[in-house]
Amino acid sequence: MAHMLVERGEVDLDAPVAKYWPEFAASSKADAPVRWLLSHPVGLVALDQPVPLKDALAWHRWRQHWPPNAQFGLLAQHTDITAAPGAGWSAR
């Protein structure tokens, strides 16, 4: 989907993610480009365990771990970069 938007000229891979999702700029992520987010070297925290596809698609179960009345965009404000962007990726 993201690459379809790039082809249409609606998303720039080198633009900061915050251009499209302003809340993402919080916690030292203001300059992270869309390209890094899509290819996973942005330095965001990794999951400790693999998540089966059926569980990832069951958003109603994920919501129980979110703060009451939270919106997904607000959760980005509390997610820090945990590694230098582009420094590598690990599934732990």
Over the alpha carbons, how many angstroms does the gyration radius reach? Answer: 14 Å
**Arithmetic mean pLDDT:** 72
Percent of residues in beta strands? under 5%
What is the molecular shape?
Answer: globular
Order of helices and strands: HHHHH
How many helices in DSSP terms?
5
**How many E strands?**
0
Number of domains: 1
Query: Approximately how much helix is present in the residues?
Result: 25-40%
Topology summary:
Layout: H1 2-7, H2 34-39, H3 53-56, H4 59-62, H5 72-75
Could you walk me through the main structural features you see in this protein, from its secondary elements to its overall organization?
The mean pLDDT is 72. The chain has helices at 2-7, 34-39, 53-56, 59-62, 72-75. It has one domain (13-78). The chain starts with a helix and ends in a 17-residue tail after the last helix. The protein contains 5 helices and no strands. By secondary structure, the protein is an all-alpha fold. It is globular. The longest helix has 6 residues, at 2-7. It is 26% helix and 0% strand.
